[in-house]
Amino acid sequence: MATKAPIYGLLAEFEDPNELVAATHRAYHEGYRRMDAYSPLPIEELHEALGAHHTRLPLIVLIGGLVGCIGGYLLQYWVSTMAYPLNVGGKPFHSWPAFIPVTFECTILGAALSAVFGMLALNGLPQPYHPVFNVPRFALASRNRFFLCIEARDPKFHVDRTREFLESLGPREVAVVAD
Amino acid sequence: MGDHTLPAGAPEQPIGGTPPVIAPGHTFGSVTDKISSIVLGGKTSIGWYLGFLTSAALAGLLLVSLAWLSVKGIGIWGNNIPVGWAFDITNFVWWIGIGHAGTLISAILLLLKQSWRTSINRFAEAMTLFAVACAGIFPLFHTGRPWLAYWLFPYPNTMGVWPQFRSPLIWDVFAVSTYATVSALFWFVGLVPDLATLRDRSQSRVGRVIYGMLALGWRGSAMHWHRYETAYLLLAGIATPLVVSVHTVVSFDFAVAIVPGWHTTIFPPYFVAGAIYSGFAMVLTLAIPIRAIYGLQDFITLRHLQNMAKVMLVTGLIVAYGYTVEAFMAWYGGNQYEGFMIWNRLTGPYAPFYYALLLCNVVIPQVLWFRSVRSNVFVLFIISLVVNVGMWLERFIIIVTSLHRDFLPSSWGMYQPTFWDLSTFIGTIGLFLMLLFLFVRFLPMISIFEMRTLVPEAKVDVEEPGH
Question: Which of A13, B118, B151, B363 has its CA 20 to 30 A from that of B302?
Fold first, then answer.
């Protein structure tokens, strides 16, 4: 038993998304919390099976959009009335209808940037190294295999008992993830 | 909505004779291998080299044209007062319009849950990006001093000068640069999981390192997927009004001016429909040869081609309605300059182009009403080329016929393209194709992870343990 070397967790490999979702439910029911499931395609049921709550991303995008909207409008207001007032065809300096297109585009830009960078930040990406990559078969997580990793930092984690539990879920194999 | 009644790939006998969105018999593995092998297969075909080198040579012509323009100034182009805009703006609007189909396919069809979009969205988004890059070249170089183009953006400067936000040209700067940024983000975000697949499957060290860096360490974690899907959906929701706004703002460049033939309220919707029309034509022009060359008929099925043909038919009719309303309003409005504008289009020196435009955009595409035409790949390809030409002519007619005969007969003139007008235009086509050749060689041209979701085994049907 590799109890000496620090381990990150135990990784069970499944061949089918249904097996992975079922296994994740079982593990959650068993009391495991510090775990993650890996799949080559998005599976809606999976994060729920992990007991995860909703993401804060929509709020971040809303804030990004509002910042873009207000910032874009104020920029035009300040430029057109204070920094560089210009009489164009006798229109008022604060000719708000003309400011709508740019305000709109700034809203979109703010929201889109915060959607992408917010998603990456919440996911902790880019992250070039992660212990699960130490398992050679994990390369198949981006092709056609489904993995459930119960992490060693879970209070219920015990190398032998957790392995026994994972074996009982009918995986293709269970591998130790070196840290 | 019919897509929901048709589990992708599952039935041997498609319902109602509609071809499936993915050929039967595919698995997660086979989809992954088939698409990634185009990139990682190792051997590059002679045809690819020939195509790449030809288009790169044309892109070289673009480089020469732009360098010469930078040295001599925009006098090397044929546009001159009264025709201050000609090939440059025609090409700009044409390229931007082509880009719109990519965003429509990736964003709007995603929101409408049209699963057939999956195998063409990646490739259509790439097309968007390259088309916007080509489009941007024209206004940039039409400024005459492209090295000072950053003056268009609001930034504190020692001259104490700021942009004039009441001008549609400044709106255009914001719309197009936002569009380019959001399209690039959308495309890259969509690529990340597939880059991880390439990283894991690449045999070469260089491939693993490069794809590995681009994949940002993606590992397919469930929480990551959840946020990813949320971000992707939000981006689609954001990109949908954006794509409509971009061509609307482009049409404002004309509609806000008082030139006859430009100053109409029909312009925004009619420009947006025209953009989608030309964009789908370009997707067909590119998809038909690519699916044949790379053997992707399993993924880009007849269903996709038929659906795109239908979108072309509908948007083509909207465009035809736009032409009709333009002519009707010119007569009904009773404005003599508007009336003369239409009369000049019909009988003036550029009339042959106007009739060619009606033939290409309105008459010929009507054959798409027939199912047999929509199922004939070769005819679809020809029609897509015809529409591409027609939409280019449309912009040329709008811009040049309105400018060359405006209010004062004493200032009338004519426009003829010079060699450099043509070389710059052909050069951008070369640049566009060159970028596409690079794209199909080095990146997965079909979204692998989204194709996996269409495979029958992707269906998850697990009950939560009830106790």
Answer: B363
Residues of A in contact with B107 (CB under 8 A): none
Instruction: Give residue B130's pLDDT.
Output: 94
The range of the structural domain enclosing residue B229 comes to 2-9+29-149+183-457
Q: Looking at the partner chain, which of A42, A88, A109 has a beta carbon nearest the beta carbon of B178?
A: A109
Q: CA-nearest residue of chain A to B467?
A: A29
pLDDT at B412: 92
- The answer to whether position B299 is within a domain reads yes
The tens digit of pLDDT for each residue in B141-183 reads: 999 899 999 999 999 999 989 999 999 999 999 999 999 999 9
Mutate to test the interface with A, among B118, B191, B211, B223 (most CBs of A within 10 A): B223
Q: What is the ipTM of this complex?
A: 0.91
User: For B235-278, what is each residue's pLDDT tens digit?
Assistant: 999 998 999 999 999 999 999 988 988 998 899 999 999 999 99
Q: Is residue B97 part of a domain?
A: yes
pLDDT band, residue B463 (cuts 50/70/90)? low
Q: Do B225 and A105 touch (CB under 8 A)?
A: no
Contact B453 A88 (CB under 8 A): no
Domain residue limits, chain A: 57-122
| Secondary structure of residue B230 in the 3-state scheme | helix
Q: What tens digit of pLDDT does each residue of B311-344 get?
A: 999 999 999 999 999 999 999 999 999 999 999 9
Which of B226, B250, B446, B455 to mutate against chain A (most A CBs within 10 Å)?
B226
Q: In what order do the strands lie in the sheet with A173-178?
A: A35-38, A146-151, A7-14, A173-178
Q: How far apart are CA B190 and CA B119, in angstroms?
A: 12
State whether residue A8 is helix, strand or coil.
strand
Report the candidate in B411, B338, B392, B416 with the shortest Cα–Cα distance to residue B89: B392
**Cβ pair B226:A47 closer than 8 A:** yes
Is residue B157 in some structural domain? Answer: no
Whether the CA torsion A165, A171, A174, A179 is positive or negative: it is negative
Please say whether the beta carbons of B419 and B101 come within 8 A.
no
Quote the pTM value.
0.89
Question: How many domains would you assign to chain B?
Answer: 1
Each residue of B108-123: pLDDT tens digit? 888 887 877 888 888 8
What residues contact A8, with CB distance under 8 A and at least 6 apart?
A131, A132, A134, A149, A151, A152, A177, A178, A179
Residues of B in Cβ contact (< 8 Å) with A35: none
User: A40, B224: Cβ pair inside 8 Å?
Assistant: no
